[in-house]
């Protein structure tokens, strides 16, 4: 069984996959390719919290059998987002890690529900949350199960989609002794800047990265503008690993 300790043996931890699962073929194709390129965990989101209600909301429970089959055939652990309490039980068999998105960081009933079992949880930082609020959210789940994920915050700077706040990520890691991974995709909002933000996170000494990756990024239904190709992902992972060695040894 995957637990926080054994998943964090991957140094740095590399998480990749599409923003959202859209078909069985799509997720099978991406899963095997990102695994070959060095990913330790697949992001496989069946439900998507979207800003607008008429945007694609994810395939939902229809995708559960696809992921079941994928786990047998591709053998890569799955990190899956839940946006509602009832989904926690629904995906218990297929999710190795639960995932709480930025917009749900303070959905305390949802946090309590994912904390009720032993699985590790990736907890993304809210769009304007302080480190104290982020750690408070981790405590609702149970700090020992949580891997924090910095994904950029809203600031006065409008140069990219969000501002990657490595300062807070470092405080969470060093003052609160929490593992922190970084999502350069949502901070950048544009695919050409994703590798650079990933390198800056690793250079800062953080524990891993989460990158939206697709075999054909322009076909992705959600966040395609920030989704990188498997080829770029492969090159990025190579450098990320080299940088990690330089910084940590
Ligand atoms: C995502 O990971 O696809 C996502 C929507 O991220 P966030 O919750 O950080 O906005
Ligand atoms: Mn996304």
Describe the fold and architecture.
This protein has 249 residues and is an alpha/beta fold. Helix content is 38%, strand content 15%. The chain has an eight-stranded parallel barrel with strand order 1-2-3-4-5-6-7-8, surrounded by five helices. β5, α6 and β6 form a beta-alpha-beta unit. The longest helix is centred in the C-terminal third of the chain and has 19 residues. It is globular. The two termini are 29 Å apart.
Structure summary:
The chain has 249 residues and is an alpha/beta fold. It has helices spanning 4-7, 24-36, 64-73, 85-90, 108-114, 131-141, 166-174, 184-188, 194-203, 230-248; strands spanning 13-17, 41-43, 78-81, 97-100, 121-124, 146-150, 180-182, 208-214, 228-229. The protein is 38% helix and 15% strand.
Write the layout of secondary structure elements.
Elements: H1 4-7, E1 13-17, H2 24-36, E2 41-43, H3 64-73, E3 78-81, H4 85-90, E4 97-100, H5 108-114, E5 121-124, H6 131-141, E6 146-150, H7 166-174, E7 180-182, H8 184-188, H9 194-203, E8 208-214, E9 228-229, H10 230-248
Parallel strand pairs: 1-2, 1-8, 2-3, 3-4, 4-5, 5-6, 6-7, 7-8, 8-9
Bound molecules: phosphoenolpyruvate (PEP) and manganese (II) ion (MN).
Residues 19, 212, 222-223 line the site of manganese (II) ion.
Tell me, what's the shape?
A: globular
Q: Cα distance, first to last residue?
A: 29 Å
Total number of beta strands:
9
Order of helices and strands: HEHEHEHEHEHEHEHHEEH
How many helices? The count is: 10
Radius of gyration: 16 Å
How large a portion of the residues is in β-strands, by DSSP E? 5-15%
């Amino acid at each position: 069984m995957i637990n926080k300790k054994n998943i964090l043996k991957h140094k740095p931890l590399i998480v990749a996959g599409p923003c959202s699962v859209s078909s069985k073929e799509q997720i099978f194709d991406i899963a095997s390719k990102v695994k070959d390129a060095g990913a330790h965990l697949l992001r496989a989101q069946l439900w998507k919290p979207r800003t607008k209600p008429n945007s694609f909301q994810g395939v939902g429970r229809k995708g559960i059998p696809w992921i079941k089959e994928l786990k047998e055939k591709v053998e890569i652990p799955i990190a899956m987002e839940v946006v509602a309490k009832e989904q926690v039980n629904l995906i218990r068999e297929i999710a190795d890690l639960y995932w709480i998105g930025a917009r749900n960081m303070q959905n305390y009933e949802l946090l309590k529900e994912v904390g009720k079992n032993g699985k590790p949880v990736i907890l993304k930082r809210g769009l304007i949350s302080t480190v104290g609020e982020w750690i408070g959210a981790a405590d609702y789940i149970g700090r020992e199960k949580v891997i924090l994920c910095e994904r950029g915050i809203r600031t006065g700077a409008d140069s990219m989609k969000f501002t990657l706040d490595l300062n807070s990520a470092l405080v969470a890691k060093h003052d609160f002794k929490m593992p922190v991974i970084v999502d350069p995709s949502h901070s950048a909002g544009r695919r050409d800047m994703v590798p650079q933000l990933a390198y800056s996170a690793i250079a800062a000494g953080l524990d891993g990265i989460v990158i939206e990756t697709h075999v054909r990024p322009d076909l992705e239904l959600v966040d395609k503008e920030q989704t990188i190709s498997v080829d770029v992902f492969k090159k990025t992972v190579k450098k990320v690993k080299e940088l990690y060695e330089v910084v940590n040894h």
